[in-house]
């Protein structure tokens, strides 16, 4: 009996080592899997959520807050750091890890999503994107080579190939095809430009919602020696069903691939769970932090809008038994007061809670995968993650 030929994988000597610890059971059931990604600054257990530190900070939190929340890897934005304070300045100051005092893994995105989202402020051609800064209107140009140079200067554990994402549901097939083809050329150029040996490079699948384009893009990206495979162009304007169909195509073709799969931009616990079930390992989103700063706290089976009047006299913690600093020490009434008084502590406490909720939920998923009970526990996990039950929008936890 011969071993099956290994599937495609990363280049030899890669600074990222990924191991699937518990593979999916096979057959028609879940594609969820437990994994371990070893990077220069530490180990990332998967499935995993990456908090987003746009400007080299997860808004309102410091590195100790992130460590306490259980974050093992964070994402920083290449576009924002290139414009301010500048990648060369960060390199001169010892690189991004030292600059932001985060000694654990970091992933930088390619800037592609930000620059192509600038609307009238950008112009795309086959060589790259010319855009105007959202800060001061100055003109800049990103090419695959420049995106890689900026990311090498920042020095994250993982860099990402430059791509052209498009809103999946509202873009014509011809336009998706053109952006996908361009993304493929840019992936090859990103690989050729990348030289930093202590930094992994992930490639991005595009292809929108069209099964043929999504399949072709998956096949193309997996043929290249990236260290990980990003699934891009989703978490946009598509429905959950459309996203699931596109994921089914991509992950179906990645079955024998030995690299981590990262779905870019997905953040609600319910969405994370469904994508894990479809075989995704890594996620990032600003969502838990953004809604927290608006006063939305995630709790099992629902959400709380702390600005609602009823919480001003509520002496209970936001979530009974939650290990975060907010729930350990303070009441709903106190947080409601902080938000009304626009006290800065409100944003930190609320963000800590949503981050702990999200990261603990991922830990719960991993624990179910480890013990082989994920399929059996799926209904319970779905009920826990359900943040938008019809008729239960404003409350309730218990
Ligand atoms: Zn809490």
Q: Topology, please?
A:
Elements: E1 17-22, E2 34-39, E3 42-46, E4 48-53, H1 63-69, E5 74-76, H2 78-83, H3 87-92, H4 96-100, E6 106-108, H5 112-116, E7 122-124, E8 129-132, E9 139-142, H6 144-154, E10 158-160, H7 173-193, E11 200-205, H8 211-222, E12 228-231, H9 240-253, E13 261-263, H10 269-277, E14 282-285, H11 287-293, E15 296-299, E16 302-305, H12 325-329, H13 332-340, H14 344-370, H15 374-385
Parallel strand pairs: 4-5, 4-14, 5-6, 10-11, 11-12, 12-13, 13-14
Antiparallel strand pairs: 1-2, 2-3, 7-8, 8-9, 15-16
Helix pairs in contact: 1-14, 6-7, 7-8, 8-9, 10-15, 11-14, 13-14, 14-15
Give a quick set of tags describing it.
398 residues; binds zinc ion; 15 helices; 8-stranded parallel β-sheet; 3-stranded antiparallel β-sheet; disordered C terminus; alpha/beta; globular; disordered N terminus
Rg measurement, Å: 21 Å
Helix content: 25-40%
Beta fraction: 15-25%
Helical element count?
15
Cα distance, first to last residue? 55 Å
What's the arrangement of strands in the largest beta sheet?
6-5-4-14-13-12-11-10
Largest sheet: 8 strands, parallel
Bound molecules: zinc ion
Please state the structural category. alpha/beta
Query: What general form does the structure show?
Result: globular
Contiguous runs where pLDDT drops below 50 for at least 5 residues: 1-5, 389-398
Overall mean pLDDT: 94
The total count of strands amounts to 16
Brief account:
By secondary structure, this protein is α/β, with parallel strands linked by helices.
Structure, explained:
- This protein is of the alpha/beta class and 398 residues long.
- Helices cover 39% and strands 17% of the residues.
- It contains 15 helices and 16 strands.
- An eight-stranded parallel sheet has the order 6-5-4-14-13-12-11-10. Strands 1-2-3 form a three-stranded antiparallel sheet.
- It starts with 16 loop residues before the first strand and ends in a 13-residue tail after the last helix.
- Residues 318-319, 322, 324, 326-327, 353, 356 line the site of zinc ion.
């Amino acid at each position: 009996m011969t071993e099956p030929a290994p599937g495609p994988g990363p280049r030899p000597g890669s600074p990222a080592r990924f191991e699937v610890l518990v593979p999916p059971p096979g057959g028609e059931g879940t594609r969820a899997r437990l994994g371990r990604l070893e990077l220069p600054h530490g180990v990332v257990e998967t499935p995993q959520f990456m908090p987003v530190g746009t400007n080299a900070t997860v808004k309102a939190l410091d590195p100790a807050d992130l460590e306490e929340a259980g974050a093992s890897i964070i994402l920083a934005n290449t576009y924002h750091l290139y414009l301010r304070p500048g990648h060369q300045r960060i390199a001169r100051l010892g690189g991004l890890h030292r600059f932001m005092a985060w000694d654990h893994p970091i992933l930088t995105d390619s800037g592609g999503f930000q620059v192509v989202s600038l609307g009238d402020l950008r112009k795309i051609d086959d060589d790259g994107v010319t855009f105007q800064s959202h800060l001061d209107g100055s003109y800049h140009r990103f090419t695959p080579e420049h995106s890689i140079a900026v990311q090498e200067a920042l020095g994250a554990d993982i860099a990402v190939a430059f791509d052209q994402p498009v809103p999946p549901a509202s873009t014509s097939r011809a336009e998706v095809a053109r952006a996908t083809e361009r993304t493929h050329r840019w992936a090859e150029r990103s690989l050729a430009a990348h030289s930093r040996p202590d930094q992994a490079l992930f490639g991005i699948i595009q292809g929108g919602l069209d099964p043929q384009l999504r399949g072709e893009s998956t096949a193309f990206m997996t043929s290249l020696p990236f260290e990980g495979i990003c699934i891009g162009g989703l978490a946009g304007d598509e429905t959950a069903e459309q996203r699931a169909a596109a994921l089914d195509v991509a992950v179906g073709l990645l079955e024998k691939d030995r690299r981590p799969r990262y779905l870019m931009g997905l953040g609600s616990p319910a969405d994370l769970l469904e994508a894990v079930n479809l075989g995704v390992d890594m996620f990032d989103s600003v969502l838990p932090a953004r809604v927290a700063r608006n006063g939305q706290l995630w709790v099992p089976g629902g959400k709380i809008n702390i600005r609602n009047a009823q919480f001003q006299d509520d002496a209970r913690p936001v979530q009974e038994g939650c290990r975060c600093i907010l729930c350990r020490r303070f009441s709903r009434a106190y947080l409601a007061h902080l938000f009304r008084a626009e006290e800065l502590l409100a944003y930190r406490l609320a963000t800590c809670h949503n981050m702990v909720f999200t990261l603990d939920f991922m830990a719960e998923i991993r624990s179910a995968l480890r013990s082989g009970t994920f399929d059996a526990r799926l209904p319970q996990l779905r009920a826990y993650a359900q943040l938008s039950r019809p008729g239960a929008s404003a409350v309730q936890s218990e």
